Amino acid sequence: MTPTSFLELLSAYGTILKNKRKTVEFSKNRLVAGLKVLEKAGTEIAKLNEAITIMMPTLEKTQKEVGDTMKILAVEKADAA
Questions:
Q1: Residue 77's pLDDT is what?
Q2: How many angstroms separate the first and last alpha carbons of the chain?
Q3: Where are the alpha helices (DSSP H) in the chain?
Q4: In 3-state terms, what secondary structure has residue 12?
Q5: Which has the closest alpha carbon to 58: 48, 69, 66, 70?
Q6: Per-residue pLDDT at 40
Q7: Which residues contact 1 (CB under 8 A, 6 or more apart)?
Q8: How many other C-beta atoms lie within 10 A of the C-beta of residue 61?
Q9: Please, which contacts does 67-72 make with residues 24 or more away whose CB atoms are closer than 8 Å?
Q10: Could you tell me the sign of the dihedral formed by the alpha carbons of 70, 72, 75, 77, in that order?
Protein backbone atom coordinates (compact mmCIF):
# COMPACT_ATOMS: atom_id res chain seq x y z
CA MET A 1 0.00 0.00 0.00
CA THR A 2 1.41 3.33 -1.02
CA PRO A 3 1.34 6.37 1.24
CA THR A 4 -1.07 8.10 -1.14
CA SER A 5 -3.57 5.23 -1.15
CA PHE A 6 -3.29 5.01 2.64
CA LEU A 7 -4.15 8.71 2.95
CA GLU A 8 -7.09 8.22 0.57
CA LEU A 9 -8.24 5.29 2.70
CA LEU A 10 -8.03 7.42 5.85
CA SER A 11 -9.94 10.22 4.13
CA ALA A 12 -12.67 7.81 2.98
CA TYR A 13 -12.88 6.34 6.48
CA GLY A 14 -13.20 9.84 7.96
CA THR A 15 -16.02 10.69 5.53
CA ILE A 16 -17.90 7.48 6.28
CA LEU A 17 -17.42 7.99 10.01
CA LYS A 18 -18.73 11.56 9.78
CA ASN A 19 -21.82 10.41 7.86
CA LYS A 20 -22.53 7.63 10.36
CA ARG A 21 -22.17 10.04 13.27
CA LYS A 22 -24.70 12.38 11.65
CA THR A 23 -27.11 9.49 11.10
CA VAL A 24 -26.74 8.27 14.68
CA GLU A 25 -27.13 11.79 16.08
CA PHE A 26 -30.29 12.34 14.02
CA SER A 27 -31.73 9.02 15.20
CA LYS A 28 -30.83 9.81 18.80
CA ASN A 29 -32.49 13.22 18.66
CA ARG A 30 -35.59 11.71 17.11
CA LEU A 31 -35.75 9.05 19.82
CA VAL A 32 -35.30 11.61 22.60
CA ALA A 33 -38.06 13.78 21.14
CA GLY A 34 -40.36 10.75 20.93
CA LEU A 35 -39.64 9.85 24.55
CA LYS A 36 -40.46 13.40 25.64
CA VAL A 37 -43.78 13.22 23.79
CA LEU A 38 -44.58 9.88 25.43
CA GLU A 39 -43.67 11.26 28.85
CA LYS A 40 -45.91 14.28 28.30
CA ALA A 41 -48.75 12.02 27.14
CA GLY A 42 -48.33 9.86 30.25
CA THR A 43 -48.58 12.94 32.45
CA GLU A 44 -51.73 14.10 30.65
CA ILE A 45 -53.30 10.65 30.98
CA ALA A 46 -52.58 10.64 34.71
CA LYS A 47 -54.25 14.05 35.03
CA LEU A 48 -57.29 12.88 33.06
CA ASN A 49 -57.61 9.73 35.16
CA GLU A 50 -57.50 11.87 38.29
CA ALA A 51 -60.20 14.16 36.88
CA ILE A 52 -62.36 11.15 35.98
CA THR A 53 -61.98 9.77 39.48
CA ILE A 54 -63.06 13.10 40.95
CA MET A 55 -66.05 13.39 38.60
CA MET A 56 -67.26 9.79 39.05
CA PRO A 57 -69.66 10.50 41.96
CA THR A 58 -71.25 13.36 40.00
CA LEU A 59 -71.65 11.10 36.98
CA GLU A 60 -73.32 8.37 39.03
CA LYS A 61 -75.68 10.94 40.59
CA THR A 62 -76.58 12.34 37.17
CA GLN A 63 -77.19 8.85 35.76
CA LYS A 64 -79.56 8.12 38.64
CA GLU A 65 -81.41 11.39 38.05
CA VAL A 66 -81.73 10.64 34.33
CA GLY A 67 -83.05 7.16 35.10
CA ASP A 68 -85.64 8.60 37.49
CA THR A 69 -86.66 11.21 34.90
CA MET A 70 -87.02 8.51 32.24
CA LYS A 71 -89.35 6.54 34.54
CA ILE A 72 -91.47 9.65 35.19
CA LEU A 73 -91.63 10.39 31.46
CA ALA A 74 -92.67 6.81 30.71
CA VAL A 75 -95.53 7.08 33.24
CA GLU A 76 -96.62 10.48 31.85
CA LYS A 77 -96.47 9.16 28.29
CA ALA A 78 -98.64 6.20 29.26
CA ASP A 79 -101.15 8.54 30.95
CA ALA A 80 -101.19 10.79 27.87
CA ALA A 81 -101.85 7.85 25.58
A1: 86
A2: 105
A3: 3-80
A4: helix
A5: 66
A6: 98
A7: 9
A8: 10
A9: none
A10: negative
Q: Which sign does the torsion angle of CA 5, 11, 17, 23 carry?
A: negative
Amino acid at residue number 5: S
CA quadruple 19, 23, 24, 28: dihedral sign = positive
Q: Note the pLDDT tens digit of each residue in 49-81.
A: 999 999 999 999 999 999 999 999 988 888 887
Convert the pLDDT of each residue in 1-50 to its tens digit: 788 999 999 999 999 999 999 999 999 999 999 999 999 999 999 999 99
pTM of the entire predicted model: 0.60
CA gyration radius, the chain: 33
* Amino acid at the residue 20: K
Handedness of CA 47, 49, 51, 54 (dihedral sign): negative
